[in-house]
Specification:
Shape: globular
Strand content: 35-45%
Number of domains: 1
Number of helices: 1
Strand order of the largest sheet: 3-2-1-4-5
Order of helices and strands: EEEHEE
Structural class: alpha+beta
Largest sheet: 5 strands, mixed
Distance between the termini: 12 Å
Number of strands: 5
Helix content: 10-25%
């Protein structure tokens, strides 16, 4: 399974926020089939630098759109993007 970091816009009833997520792709499709929140940690400073670089690349990709209404967040639209072997 391939994945990359993306930015997701969450539209709620009272506010709109943006957050980093890990987007997971199945079967070579350009559409993510699920996402999870990004946790900011690493086992070394080098790993944190690599995470920061991936997050910076996520800012260059189309924004995924989600929604939250009286329950958990859910992806409501998916933007197509090319995915390479590294999931970027």
């Amino acid at each position: 399974m391939k994945w990359n970091h993306r930015v997701m816009k969450i539209e709620g009833p009272d506010e709109t926020i943006y957050k980093f997520v890990e987007a997971f792709y199945d079967g070579g499709t350009a559409e993510p089939h699920s996402t999870s929140s990004v946790f900011m940690y690493g086992e070394s400073i080098e790993e944190l630098k690599e995470l920061l670089a991936r997050l910076m690349r996520a800012l260059e990709k189309p924004v995924l759109v989600g929604a939250q209404e009286d329950g958990p967040e859910m992806m409501v639209t998916r933007n197509e993007v090319p995915v390479n072997e590294k999931g970027e």
